[in-house]
Fold:
Amino acid sequence: MPRGSQMSSEPLLIVTGLSGAGKTGAMKALEDLGYFCIDNLPPSLLTQLSEIPALKADSRERIAIAMDVRGRSMFTDLFAALEVLRSNGTLHKILFLDCADDLLVRRYSETRRRHPVREGHSLYENIAAERKLLSKVRERANLILDTTRINPRELKMRLGRIVMNQEVSIDIDIDIMSFGFKHGVPLDADMMFDVRFLPNPYYDATLRDLTGLDKPVADYIFLQPETNRFIDEICPLIERWIPLHASTGKARLTIALGCTGGQHRSVSVAECISKRLKKHFSQILPFHRDLQKKPNAY
Structure:
């Protein structure tokens, strides 16, 4: 991979390359790596970006800008904009994404999208025309990445290595959320479990005004054999699923546990599952969405 091992300490990264080579995935990965990402910016606006404080040499901020032939005539202004960046001292690098023609053709055939360069009767001819159009940009690129055999997880790891000169962990942030069904289901949940089958502490007058974070409520819930059986059965499943989600390049996973009001059962169970998962995963955060809401009769 030519020029791919260099470190990018520059605050501005320009991402370009062949259509279908993975710019969208690369921008998502760069966002996960801490970059502020802008898609399809007209080259003429690059010079204006150079004036913002985030692009100063001593800044810790990082900005990634994707540019491709969707910009059509504006794309030809890129070299002029790069010269302005060079002359005013804005540090930057160009990342060029390449890919094998056969894979590009397959991707366009599967999605049935139109190729942005239409200078031939076939996709191969359009890709060849785009390669010619981008040849000078490729020559000026500091980093060249061939995405032909790279999956989303590997793309993020490879970008971390060549762009930031650091190894990127495939750890995934995992939110363990408790909630109450009476307040609506969480729309951002990736997995959802219903614990309303457990006896409800609300109907014990001594526990009603407490929450699942209080020991008397937790003791009440975990004295029920079905509670421990539930946790013993779902935790191994979750532990197997998490690495599969992480392998796709996903940065966050939300596991939601719901009871009626989100005050007692789901809170205690979420806390218990969080402790179990922390034995295997580092980024576990229990979150109790409805704990501050008044527990009206339910």
